[in-house]
Amino acid sequence: xxxxxxxxxxxGALITGSFLCAQSPxxxxxxLKRKPAINALKNQGKVGENNVGKLTPRAALNPGxxxxxxxxxxxxxxxxxxxxxxxxxLPVEVGKRRALKIAQLAKPGHWLQxxxxxxxxxx
Length: 123
Known about the structure:
- The chain starts with a helix and ends with a strand.
- By secondary structure, it is of the alpha+beta class.
- It has four helices and four strands.
- Helix 3 crosses helix 4.
- The protein has a four-stranded mixed beta sheet.
- 62% of the residues lie in helices and 10% in strands.
- It has one domain (2-121).
- The longest helix is centred in the middle third of the chain and has 25 residues, at 63-87.
């Protein structure tokens, strides 16, 4: 149990401290390029952040918006796998920790999925 706690602490520190810094320059550039469009979709309530660190549609999306969300989720999966490999944990654990950090940083009105699966808008 102590080792698991240490691993979760390290995962949390890596994810919260420098998620983008831990990524390749190409991956980081793609995240940063998509950020304004994703934030716009979040502000409109069209997408939310689920409890495993991925974006989930909350309303109908056009084909371009779907491609944007799919690309973001694909790159997040890549990042989570890379971090998990370095820390010898499952990628889903990395995603869950990232989801907690995303929820902390979310703006009021953004859709979030709690750890138990409930959806809510941040106040």
